[in-house]
Amino acid sequence: MFFTLNDPSHWAVFCFIFILHIDPNSLTMSPLRINGSPNGNVKTLGSAGTIFEAEDSDVLLRIMERPRAINVSFEEKPSNELLSNHFECLSPHGRRSGFNSPRSYTSFEAHALVGEAWENMKRSIVYYRRQPVGTVAAMDHSVEELNYDQVFVRDFVPSALAFLMNGEEEVVKNFLLKTLHLQSWEKMIDQFKLGEGVMPASFKVIHNPVRNREILIADFGESAIGRVAPVDSGFWWIILLRAYTRHTGDSSLAEMPECQRGMRLILTLCLSEAFDTFPTLLCADGCCMIDRRMGVYGYPIEIQALFFMALRCALLLLKQDQEGKEFIERIVKRLHALSFHMRNYFWLDLKQLNDIYRYKTEEYSHTAVNKFNVMPDSLPDWVFDFMPTRGGYFIGNVSPARMDFRWFCLGNCVAILSSLATPEQASAIMDLIESRWDELVGEMPLKICYPALESHEWRIVTGCDPKNTRWSYHNGGSWPVLLWLLTAACIKTGRPQIARRAIELAENRLSKDHWPEYYDGKTGRYIGKQARKFQTWSISGYLVAKMMLEDPSHLGMISLEEDKQMKPLMKRSTSWTC
């Protein structure tokens, strides 16, 4: 086996950079650093006192971006030592660095999209007083920005995971602290004060000409469509805090009094006692990723799965002091009730579908089988064809006399990652995805929900929303960001081939289509009619999926193993084990 850089100019640049980045005092490699300006443009490229002007750095970066010829004899396997030495010159100490060298992706045959994706990620970074604090929602300047120039809590999660996997913890820590600071603000919508624990949906950095300094502006729902507060933001914040702690091994951030208080405020909101007879959270339409009217009011699967995962993460993060122990006791009780409720009443497979089809109504007693008085005639026709012989899923919503049988991708994937789904249920969800690949994945992964609302139902449920027409946006649109959740769920269930197949589909189009927010059509064939280009979480979702497949140990950041003590006696269908 032999390894060469065929182009002499590449050798010259390579050796030039190598020599410049040797620290004479320690004779060790010092990091190559790219400093970004607050607007995301590269200003200088410097290291250990060596600084290049912007024009020189651009030339060097363009040369480094050209593919290097690697000649490999097929008589031998590639030398890991030789390859690692080559990549260490570009990424010191074997660490990947999204800010320092976005191309430092050490897979032997890294896809060309990876480097492009990291460059776009670098441009999306938002700075606040020279510190990175998040990523903008999209970088599409061809249309009015609206709120796509803001840092959204839910949107930043895949970006944060990508940065953590790439060894860039600073931006994630800064984001967690800034959003925590925003939580403490007084939140008023008209004359009504929101709960103290509400986290913002998004924030924006603007320049205050009076003070001549940068300030943060947060949106807690007062500017959102429908004026709905984001229920999922607090849950994502706790989940991300646990991911940061798990990845870095540093618990000092989570143990800060401010972080402990922030968690307790979020938990106070969702663990408070009210009139509910269910352990699930009652929510308004538009309170999560589906942030427009789509009939997800009540007890949406996305919120319940995130709620369950956030509670489990909080158990690991809360300190065992007097206040912490009180919340831990309440969390444990809620988790037991929530897991039983979700696994029994939200789960649907072929046998359970048949049982509902045969339900009697108007039952009155503790022995009622049809506990929610669901009318069998309300079963939609499509669900009978959609349900495979093997497989199942958590349906969209369960409330009195109402079951929403739609498939929602995010809720089901989070159910797997949080172990809300039992191992048998998790496997059944994967079986469903494989069986209904054309419907749920099609030509571009991944359907946010299935099927789409059409005709009269669309008019009633969405209020004739022109953005949520059939097979578009939230109404059956295909969202590339969901790749990372699917990949994580596939790895956890031992089905990486499903994720690999989906990623290959996305790679065929994402770059050519300029990384759209979503795709339209029954199979996801068309770029969304109002989709922003260079959508950051489409980019970061792809990166996280790729890095997780390369190194499955990253799964530990976002996955929780099953708690055997929470496993209830299953009284519902077990046909997924057939």
From TrEMBL:
One of its GO terms (molecular function) is endo-alpha-N-acetylgalactosaminidase activity. It catalyses: Hydrolysis of terminal non-reducing beta-D-fructofuranoside residues in beta-D-fructofuranosides. It holds the Pfam family Glyco_hydro_100. The keyword Nucleus does not apply. Its EC number is 3.2.1.26. One of its GO terms (biological process) is sucrose catabolic process. Keywords: Carbohydrate metabolism, Glycosidase, Hydrolase. Belongs to the glycosyl hydrolase 100 family. Invertase that cleaves sucrose into glucose and fructose. This is Alkaline/neutral invertase. It comes from Gossypium laxum.
